[in-house]
Write a structure and sequence with these properties.
Layout (H helix, E strand, L loop, with lengths): L7 H13 L2 E2 H12 L3 H13 L3 E4 L2 E4 L3 H17 L3 H11 L4 H18 L1
Antiparallel strand pairs: 1-3, 2-3
């Protein structure tokens, strides 16, 4: 997957698929008509775009994820840090914490994550 971007509506559409996968394309058309007031052609156009991005596949009338929602958002986060902060996670955290203080529980969670990472890296 090379393009980790999705607009708001695409993201809502993707969530519908992830929540119900595998889902028939017929059912997806019905849900998109109810949720977004889309025509069948609009549903298939958006689905085709998301399939071309490598997020979903539509085979034999059944739509399912190529990657999970978690994998998508992890990749999107990595891309954001790479493009915005030169790949530096410390630079991202420094920028983030200038406007939002971390709670004790968030700091504890970050410490736990770093410790787990260090253990796995040994």
């Amino acid at each position: 997957m090379s393009d980790y971007q999705m607009g708001t509506i695409e993201a809502r559409f993707a969530d519908i698929i992830w929540e119900r996968e595998p889902i028939s394309s017929t059912e997806l058309v019905r849900i998109a008509a109810d949720e977004f007031d889309w025509k069948k052609s609009t549903t298939y156009t958006v689905l085709k775009r998301l399939c071309e991005k490598g997020i979903f596949k539509n085979e034999g009338g059944s739509v399912s994820g190529v990657i999970t929602r978690e994998e998508f958002y992890a990749a999107r986060s990595e891309q954001f840090v790479e493009e915005t902060f030169g790949g530096s996670l410390p630079a991202f955290i420094a920028a983030f914490t200038k406007r939002k203080a971390l709670s004790k529980s968030e700091l504890d969670e970050l410490r736990r994550m770093v410790e787990e990472y260090e253990e796995e890296s040994k």
